[in-house]
Amino acid sequence: MLRPYGYMKFILPQFVQQALKQLKDAGFEAFVVGGSVRDLLLGREPKDYDVTTNATPEQIQTTFEDTLYNNNFGTVAVRIIDAEGERHEIEVTPYRAESGYADKRHPDHVTFGVSLEEDLKRRDFTINAMAYDGEQVVDLFGGRKDLQSKLIRTVGSAEDRFDEDPLRMLRACRFAAQLDFQIEEQTFQWLKKLSYTIYPHISWERIRDEILKTITAEDAFRGFWYMHITGLLQYIFPELEKGVGVSQNKHHIYTVFTHNLLSMQFTPSEDPLVLLAALLHDVGKPQAKQGEGSECTFYNHEHVGARIARRIMQRLKFSTKDVECVTHLVDQHMFHYSIGEITDSGVRRLIKRIGRENFDDLMALRIGDRMGSGTQKEKPYKLIELERRIRLVEKDPMDTTMLKIDGNDIMQLTGLKPGREVGQIMNALLEDVLNDPSLNTREYLEKCAQVIFHDLKKKKSI
After folding, report:
1. Each residue of 279-327: pLDDT tens digit?
2. What CATH architecture does domain 4-149 belong to?
3. Domain 152-236 grouped into CATH 1.10.110.30
4. Which of 71-80, 269-278, 391-400 has the lowest mean pLDDT?
5. Which of 2, 33, 164, 457 is the most core-located residue (most Cβ within 10 A)?
6. Which residues lie across from 151 on neighbouring strands?
7. Cβ pair 69, 52 in contact under 8 A
8. Paired residues of 33 in beta bridges
9. CA atoms within 13 A on the CB side of 229
């Protein structure tokens, strides 16, 4: 017999209420289940709602007019139009009992419609194993108590839950980071014992997705620290682990590893790629380190780190665009600027090298870098001054697309065909304009292009 936690009233979205009502009116049980119930109990706004029922997939399709069902796990996508005419989609899944996980992800056998208790028993953590029918919360495994104690605990045997799907170990770290919870002791011990199963049993794509969810959590440091102390991180980011115990020079009070984690935590950005760049920005330091003590050096660690970051991201199956974004930020994070040393043309060249579209992200990384070093002030005066100067010159030409002539003009002037020489002339013109933006006139650039073209011809004839 079910042991409900008690009668509670939460305001569910109208389309969720409608889904529950239609199932109940058709004679079935219906509950909101999983993370949405957890978030309701925590006073958080759920991101989505899942519904479970004792109806079979065929019965679910009969109950609703607009459905889609094309999987082996019973989940039916139900489309509902609410009272205001807005269209919503909600997933409705029959009660399921599962057994056997040969691929460490999907059950070998699924039985539909057994009972709510069997359905909740198969879930990962107690805080995700509660159900709500619009009036009462059903809590069979102590999820409410663990919410109050701020604990991540598996449902039943931690060994069995992690063996069924090792990704749950990363999910435990992620929930700890998102909810500001601790991992319960037995769950923690089994996580340590089984951390080695995370790969090759779990695909890099699934690991990547959990990493991105963790890195954007409120306390991402906690999540990655759990990955470290349980041993998970050595299988996912062994390059990051090489910074453990590596001391730095007089400008830092933390080891390389701790500094990387703190930099990620303090970087003021919601973009997971920027946060990932912050996490990896000094990953090249262990390899580049020379000497010991307060005067040790890390020359070119940013370039070494960019190469390492590229390998990490390719391993995690990031897109080429995302790989280029992160490696560029890591490679450029040591950009130099001192008041009085750099002219306006130098600022324009800095913007050209970094890319104006990347500058705000790089500045966020620099703030995280400083704060992760133990510095209390986010921005020194020189970075504030650099931002001011960038605003002054950012409308000046920074690349060849902003010149008053283009490649077609060059080809008409010189008779050249599309090729490397056209690019050379355009880049030479840009150098002039970077030094003096007032030269960005069609008349000047046409004359200058002809001079550069004749110089190229002379060099070829020598």
Report:
1. 999 999 999 999 998 899 999 999 999 999 999 999 999 999 999 999 9
2. 2-Layer Sandwich (3.30)
3. yes
4. 391-400
5. 33
6. 182
7. no
8. 50, 131
9. 12
Angle at 283 between CA 280 and CA 284, to 5 degrees: 135
Pairing of strands 4-7, 136-139: antiparallel
Let me know: does 283 contact 315? Beta carbons within 8 Å.
no
Please give the model's pTM, rounded to 2 decimal places.
0.84
For the domain spanning 244-395, the CATH number is 1.10.3210
CA distance 239 to 314: 14
Which residue type occupies 284? G
**Read out DSSP for 24-73?**
HHTT--EEEETHHHHHHHHT---S--EEEESS-HHHHHHH-SSEE--SSS
Beta-bridge mates of residue 93: 52
Q: Pick from 454, 449, 455: which is nearest to 422 by CA?
A: 449
- The residues, ordered by sequence, that sit 6+ positions from 347 with a Cβ below 8 Å of its Cβ are 386, 389, 390, 393
Q: Write out 80-95 in H/E/C secondary structure.
A: EECCCCCEEEEEEEEC
Nearest of 75, 112, 91, 84 to residue 16 by alpha carbon = 91
| Structure-token pair, residue 358 | 């990347």
Distance CA 378, CA 390 (A): 19
Per domain, the residue ranges of the chain are 4-149, 152-236, 244-395, 400-461
4-149 and 152-236, same CATH topology: no
pLDDT band at 462 (very low <50, low <70, confident <90, very high): very low
